[in-house]
Specification:
The protein is mainly alpha-helical. The protein contains 14 helices and no strands. The chain has two domains: 118 residues, TRAP transporter T-component (Serine Threonine Protein Phosphatase 5, Tetratricopeptide repeat), CATH 1.25.40; 105 residues, Alpha Horseshoe (Serine Threonine Protein Phosphatase 5, Tetratricopeptide repeat), CATH 1.25.40. The radius of gyration is 18 Å and the shape is globular. The termini are far apart. Pfam families: TAtT.
């Protein structure tokens, strides 16, 4: 069982057929749900369940109600794995910011990376799906702190994925309303650099979130064309890269209408 979570996760992430994963992943999710019941203290299993529920929901599920259920489950699994990883972090999401900050910043070792990133990414997905709930949106600062802590420990972790989240977070507010898009640009650029340009979703989100925010069509279209022209095969990123190329084509097709 200790090797099952990792093998399931990599089997999905390295698949090059989006439709196969769309049709087959629900079976994996059911297997993971059952395994979590039998092994409720296996934090690796909980991480895989969180990551795959979140990935399936965000990439493939169009129906809002169903997507929210999966995203909510992803966050619950992420919270449970954090509690197992560090007892002081049980109920972390309920703490006042100062206490929350203290506990997160005390988690400063490589062994803390998986637990931190899993919680941060699942929580970000939850906030996105509950963007009409101001209580959920108010927690964005906590997610940002988690991702900054991941970057402080190892900024290249997960091929720059934490930097991607920080770029997106800092792209949410237009500059005229006090936003800092140039901070977002720096995060996106650093993520591209550290992944050697192989994590294609960073370029897609750089185009979608930053270039559109500042109305830079040249940057927008260049990034998307680079993604479309790239080889998507990359260990641990193949599925995400194929999705990134699909999204890049959609965004490029509507570029002239947007700008």
């Amino acid at each position: 069982m200790n090797r099952l979570p990792e093998s399931l996760g990599y089997g999905v992430l390295n698949n090059d057929d989006l439709e196969t994963v769309r049709e087959g992943l629900p079976t994996y999710l059911l297997v993971l749900d059952g395994a979590v019941i039998n092994y409720p203290r296996n934090d690796g299993l909980l991480r895989t369940a969180s990551n795959l529920n979140g990935a399936y929901a965000s990439l493939f599920v169009q129906e809002k109600e169903r997507r929210v259920r999966l995203i909510d489950k992803s966050l619950k699994y992420a919270q449970r794995q954090m509690c197992i990883h560090k007892k002081r972090a049980c109920g972390l999401e309920t703490l006042e910011f100062e206490k929350f900050q203290q506990i997160v910043q005390d988690m400063d070792r490589k062994k803390d990376l998986e637990a931190l990133y899993t919680l941060g990414s699942a929580w970000a997905g939850y906030i996105q799906e509950h963007s009409d709930d101001w209580n959920a949106v108010a927690d964005l600062a906590k997610v940002e702190l988690i991702m900054k802590q991941v970057v402080a420990i190892d900024e290249s972790y997960s091929r720059g994925q934490a930097l991607l989240y920080l770029g997106i977070i800092n792209s949410l507010i237009p500059p005229g309303l006090g936003g800092k898009p140039e901070v977002a640009r720096e995060y996106f650029e650093r993520g591209i650099e550290l992944s050697y340009g192989r994590n294609l979703i960073i370029k897609v989100k750089y185009a979608e979130k930053y270039a559109r925010l500042v109305f830079d069509q040249d940057l927008h279209d260049r990034l998307l064309r680079e993604v479309i022209a790239a080889d998507p095969e990359e260990n641990g990123l193949t599925l995400q890269n194929h999705y990134a190329q699909q999204l890049a084509r959609e965004l490029l097709a509507e570029s002239n209408d947007y700008f």
